[in-house]
Amino acid sequence: xxxxxxxxxxxxxxxNTLGVVKDxxxxxxxxxxxxxxxxxxxxxxxxxxxEVRVRYHMSQSALAHTTGMSVESVSKWERNESxxxxxxLRIINVIEDKGPDVFMV
Length: 105
Fold this sequence. Notes:
Structural class: mainly alpha
CATH class of the largest domain: Mainly Alpha
Distance between the termini: 33 Å
CATH architecture of the largest domain: Orthogonal Bundle
Number of helices: 6
Radius of gyration: 20 Å
Number of strands: 0
């Protein structure tokens, strides 16, 4: 997070204490600060996607279901014929970092 954003957040909190800035404004600034701490989506090659899937004993069907995509799409990703969209790639990043159990209900 930038120093400028940290200063704005601190200032808003101080002014909130004095009654000059509304709670909703501080909450919005805090949400913006928190959103900046979300890691960027990491690009992955087909081999890396397959490695994640195999590591967690997931079939292409299971990965397709988890990402909301088709088995054909997963197969194409793994063969480097196409790339997953950002949403699917973020899900694969999460699976790589935390395992597929984070998606179990």
